[in-house]
Amino acid sequence: MIKVGIVGCSGYTAIEAIKWLLRHPDAEIVAATSRKADGSTVCAMHPTLTGRLNLVVEDLAPEQVAARCDVVFCCLPHAASAPIVSQILDSGSKVIDLSADYRLSTCALYEKWYGSQHPDPGRVGQAPYGLPELFAEQIRGANLVANPGCYPTSAILPLAPLVKEGLIETTGIVVDAKSGASGAGRTPKLGTLYSEINESFSAYGVGTHRHQPEIIDIIGRYAGSEPQLIFTPHLVPMDRGILSTIYARPQAGATANQIRECLCSYYQNSPFVRVVSHLPATKHVAGTNYCDLTVRDSGGWIILLSALDNLVKGASGAAVQCMNILFDHDETTGLGA
Amino acid sequence: MIKVGIVGCSGYTAIEAIKWLLRHPDAEIVAATSRKADGSTVCAMHPTLTGRLNLVVEDLAPEQVAARCDVVFCCLPHAASAPIVSQILDSGSKVIDLSADYRLSTCALYEKWYGSQHPDPGRVGQAPYGLPELFAEQIRGANLVANPGCYPTSAILPLAPLVKEGLIETTGIVVDAKSGASGAGRTPKLGTLYSEINESFSAYGVGTHRHQPEIIDIIGRYAGSEPQLIFTPHLVPMDRGILSTIYARPQAGATANQIRECLCSYYQNSPFVRVVSHLPATKHVAGTNYCDLTVRDSGGWIILLSALDNLVKGASGAAVQCMNILFDHDETTGLGA
Amino acid sequence: MIKVGIVGCSGYTAIEAIKWLLRHPDAEIVAATSRKADGSTVCAMHPTLTGRLNLVVEDLAPEQVAARCDVVFCCLPHAASAPIVSQILDSGSKVIDLSADYRLSTCALYEKWYGSQHPDPGRVGQAPYGLPELFAEQIRGANLVANPGCYPTSAILPLAPLVKEGLIETTGIVVDAKSGASGAGRTPKLGTLYSEINESFSAYGVGTHRHQPEIIDIIGRYAGSEPQLIFTPHLVPMDRGILSTIYARPQAGATANQIRECLCSYYQNSPFVRVVSHLPATKHVAGTNYCDLTVRDSGGWIILLSALDNLVKGASGAAVQCMNILFDHDETTGLGA
Amino acid sequence: MIKVGIVGCSGYTAIEAIKWLLRHPDAEIVAATSRKADGSTVCAMHPTLTGRLNLVVEDLAPEQVAARCDVVFCCLPHAASAPIVSQILDSGSKVIDLSADYRLSTCALYEKWYGSQHPDPGRVGQAPYGLPELFAEQIRGANLVANPGCYPTSAILPLAPLVKEGLIETTGIVVDAKSGASGAGRTPKLGTLYSEINESFSAYGVGTHRHQPEIIDIIGRYAGSEPQLIFTPHLVPMDRGILSTIYARPQAGATANQIRECLCSYYQNSPFVRVVSHLPATKHVAGTNYCDLTVRDSGGWIILLSALDNLVKGASGAAVQCMNILFDHDETTGLGA
Q1: D241-252: buried (b, 16+ CB within 10 Å) or exposed (e) per residue?
Q2: What pLDDT, on the 0 to 100 scale, is given for residue A337?
Q3: pLDDT tens digits for range B261-289
Q4: Nearest Cβ partner of A50 from C48, C51, C274?
Q5: Residues C252, C244: Cα–Cα separation, whole Å
Q6: Banded pLDDT at C252 (limits 50, 70, 90)
Q7: What pLDDT, on the 0 to 100 scale, is given for residue B65?
């Protein structure tokens, strides 16, 4: 039984992680922490868990969490996460960090995009990126896994193999991505009120979103060739789901069919990537750990479409998948849809 | 041209009032105030108004607002409203108060349900309740109008005539009401985040909502007989609209047809009340100042259904309707759907 | 391994049943039928199942289905279901019927509310009502289970114990119920188009909905005393979930606390009924087999609130729960949230 | 008073046209036709109009409609529209055709994309495209106006001036567009059911949507240079609104600022185009005839964003705007938001 701790248990990724861990036959949640701890249980914070997890939320120090756990899911915001992760690692537990703190390759990149010095520079560039479809070997022996961003997962899964195989040009790529509102987190803000988001659709962070350098960095790291791409996120009035529509130029006369075959071949042993022939919809993957991919061509472009659930394959399901690898379980354990 | 001020212009009722006033042929918005005023225009706060109202938001004192205006729409929260309203009235402008501060008949009732002393006790019980369908005469010569609550409007319009005419029993009435999320206001709170409300339906304030005494008080005032009723509000995942399903016992053998005729007769000269034969839906009245009513009977009950847009007939449309009466315009001026 | 067939596999209850059965450790789906069968697989009909169930949809005769299966989930519309169910039973398979055909006690009641003669009158009144919380003993040895309606489950679970124990009056009960749109089925109709339902809320079938006699019949059957109640369904712009707000009069001075204790006591061994102290929301139970109940009192009324997912505890989850009982598995097998 | 007829009054564009015409001070609806006419009024078909338009729906021949009207809004599907339009024109009324039948320049283009021979080839290429911001002169004296498609309006308004002025390259343009569900019409289909669209986001018609040739054709006609672009539509779970995110390459070193200035200059006398500096959202323009545009640059791309209400500026509001021009009224008459 893997003993798991949840640090920062009040948000949407935390509750989602808890739900999947409760279904997992070999995991047990032994600690849930929050600065808002007031002696009540996780159920009081998340009524959907009533009767399913009678654990008191605690305001534990990192060492205390580490002492109880084999692995800690760290669900804190970026910059807040690294100092805690660092202490948990030093105290001997493994960590899957759901923040962005350990995803980028260099401190310089982090500082450019996150606007502050990295709190744990020594580990930057050391943690494997928690996308088992691409980095399973590096994840296997790690103590710290940098769990991927939701948008990057939806862009990297279709693009990385194609860049690696030279089937698309690495310049001029456009990632036009659309996400449900749970991606914006559970902290009350004007912009995430129901009456602001409902019945509206808009772009945000055009040219400035932090997932853009993450996508570029990881594809470059995996494929050996850094793509030149832009990323435009949009907010969809729905709870969950990301659909990315990606425009790239074929290389060496590659056709949609060849590209589909490349993806099929790359992911033939990846149980959570489904290369489909129909156009994917976020509803097809909602509540599951799947990422559905398809390919079209038109007007000289290759159009890649990918759909995933931002809280599952885009966050907590991916974290459980990484946990399975860290502890030598089958990748799919507890992740049946 | 009626010179209108909007006090507290950042919320949903304020923006809705502004939109209707912009369409009004005889009204001009001459002041918009907010404590958040920072030198920018109303459009910066509400991008939907871009190019339609180039008015700078100001942090004006009540006397300053009064000096510019014939009438002020006060869109502040309860308890915050009365002190401002009081000073505006003293400075010579009329006021339509969209808060609850002047709706109840007595200070005692206010204190019981709002939990604090009334800030302007001398005017309590003096302001007409701004439901022109029932109180047009009192509104006509008033300086201060207490604009009705959204839920109360949906309950009082169908119930008041029936209580007055003795067609239903005044005890054992159940008002089961459902509202879209804009009724919860524009202040960021966990409970009004998109991801909390979307795809969920729940009751709230069961037995404790402040609109219950308002409904009882006003029906009693109008019909001379205070009903005994309970009110249960629910939150619907949509922007706008209230549907109230009301259960009452017929009196003296009254049938659904007699009750429908009574409503038709009462509201034959009320342009915004439509007594319909089909079951009303909030979508039929969204964006309009209509309240649709119908009647059914079943199992010994009379079932009344009423639908309105909580931001229009339930708030800012009603306020414009009252303004028209205050300034001897046709009730419907500027309120075409 | 229980061999399961799905008859009528194109709708929402069928797809939901399939999803839960895929998670079930001891069930295997061996047949899926539809008159729309065209040689393609279940996945082509339900892309969410891609790669999870490679079963060809067939247009099988009832005997053919029965020959393959230990139990058949019959997901056909009422009136269409009974003739098929009858033949499957005659051919030796057990049946869990998700239609309304075997729920009511008498043919007369069926004919009154469904407007046609019952197609299989001999079995009317014989099948246990598939609410294991109340009828587990009768279900255990049955060949045919009448799976409950979604609204009835939400009303019967809170009401039946209270009627049985004499804690509420059996007259004058009001069930004001609200459901998400998946309850309306997957057949294209004007009324269930996105643009008709979205941003709208309305009542329907006031005094005429077929779930009203079902609720009355089952409570009467269970508690020995037929209640006099009315039922008003409403349509909520969301996919899943039912919340019922139920108004009843306490008997013999019963308080909300006594009623809560009665419910706690009745359901202490019912893993899927959670008697909670907070106000339930459909989101708390979405995607789970739970029904959350709570109690309030106000103005001389007892107010019961119940929330469930209409496709899970209100349909296919309940069916799997019944299947577990039929085959002597733990009631909760495969139903972990 | 302009006498207006509505041919095909059961759908969403028809109801939207009726609402705007009811507000118009100089228009009167004198006929509403439908093949579904059964002697009841427009209100019976659209309960939101109760008490606002007591007109009986008729199944009139084109000549009969023409005899009553100065102008007819033809709200029929493509291919069904042209034969009717042709007869109405021949009978002497003006027509604003909301279908696609007269939008494309040539019969060959129509046949390629609509898959059938054009029913009225003689008028193909003759009708002005009803986008007054670009074609007001041609509209002024016309008898037939081809009202633009909703997506094309959102793409042509930002792109046409830039192509004309040589500020962007005319090749490699990507129009990634997202629309609310009302764009899919009011005919019941599986794909437009609430439970299919809600909580889902997907692309459709990738590379095959008929609005792609319309965009290319009109920009070419206006700017003299046919662009090479691809268009990808997506379905958003909301009622109304289109947001298009458009990627183009700047020409001759054009910057975002220069492009914004070009748009400002082009549209300085266009009351319904707002060039804004913030990122537009569909909610900002919902229920209005505005199209909001903005510009960003990133990674060597110019990113244009445009938002409009698909039923207003994308359909019926534009039709009223054209009607105003046809009858020498101010373009904005009756179109105040």
Answers
A1: bbbbbbbbebee
A2: 73
A3: 999 999 999 999 999 999 999 999 999 99
A4: C274
A5: 24
A6: confident
A7: 98
Q: What percent of chain B has pLDDT over 70?
A: 100
Chain B residue at shortest CA distance from C235:
B281
What Rg, from alpha-carbon coordinates, does chain D have?
19
Q: Which of C181, C227, C228 is nearest to C204 (CA)?
A: C181
Paired tokens of B282: 């909030």
Angle value at C-alpha C61, between C56 and C63, nearest 5 degrees: 110
Q: What secondary structure, in 3-state letters, does D138-172 show?
A: HHHCCCEEECCCHHHHHHHHHHHHHHHCCCECCCC
Catalytic-residue membership of D150 = yes
Cβ burial, residue C268 (10 Å; 0-12/13-18/19+): exposed
- Provide the token pair at C172: 């004058």
Kind and range of the H or E run holding B95: strand B94-97
What is chain C's mean pLDDT, rounded? 97
**CB within 8 Å of C79: residues ≥ 6 apart:** C99, C101, C114, C116, C119
C317: left (phi over 0), alpha (psi -120 to 50) or beta: alpha
Q: How far is D286 from chain B (nearest CA, A)?
A: 9
- Is A288 in contact with C48 (Cβ distance < 8 A)? yes
Tokens of A2: 């893997």
pLDDT of C280-334, one tens digit each? 999 999 999 999 999 999 999 999 999 999 999 999 999 999 999 999 999 999 9
pLDDT at B242: 98
Amino acid identity of residue D203, one-letter, is A
Give D234-243 pLDDT, tens digit per residue: 999 999 999 9
Region C106-123: what's the mean pLDDT? 97
The residue written with tokens 């939990």 in the block is B115
The model's pLDDT over A21-55, given as tens digits with 9 standing for 90+, comes to: 999 999 999 999 999 899 999 999 999 999 999 89
**Residues in chain A with pLDDT values less than 50:** none
Instruction: Name the interface residues of B facing A (CB cutoff 8 Å).
Output: 12, 181-182, 184, 186, 188-190, 192-199, 237-239
Delineate the domains of chain C, giving CATH numbers in brackets: 2-127 (3.40.50.720), 150-310 (3.30.360.10)
Q: Kindly report the average pLDDT of chain D as a whole number.
A: 97
- Name C46's Cβ contacts closer than 8 Å, sequence gap at least 6: C15, C18
Q: Which residues of B touch D336 (CB under 8 A)?
A: 22-23
Cβ neighbours of residue C268 closer than 8 Å, sequence gap 6 or more: none
- Catalytic residue positions of B, numbered: 150
Strand-by-strand arrangement of the A94-97 sheet: A27-33, A2-7, A71-74, A94-97, A144-146
What is this model's ipTM? 0.97
Residue D252 reports pLDDT greater than 90: no
Cβ contact C47–A281 (<8 Å): yes
| DSSP line for A257-295 | HHHHHHHHHHTTT-TTEEE-SSPPBHHHHTTSS-EEEEE
Place of tokens 């059911």: D193
DSSP H or E segment with residue B5: strand B2-7
Say if the Cβ atoms of C182 and D193 lie within 8 Å: no
Residues constituting chain B? 337
What average pLDDT does this structure show over D22-30? Answer: 97
Q: D138: burial class by Cβ within 10 Å (0-12, 13-18, 19+)? A: middle
Sign of CA dihedral C327, C329, C330, C334: negative
Q: Which residue of C has its CA nearest to D47?
A: C196
Q: Is the pLDDT of residue B309 over 90?
A: yes
Query: In angstroms, how far is the first alpha carbon of chain C from the final one?
Result: 22
Angle in degrees, CA B315, B128, B259, rounded to 5: 75
The angle subtended at Cα A242 by Cα D235 and Cα D301, nearest 5°, is 80
Residue C337: pLDDT over 80: no
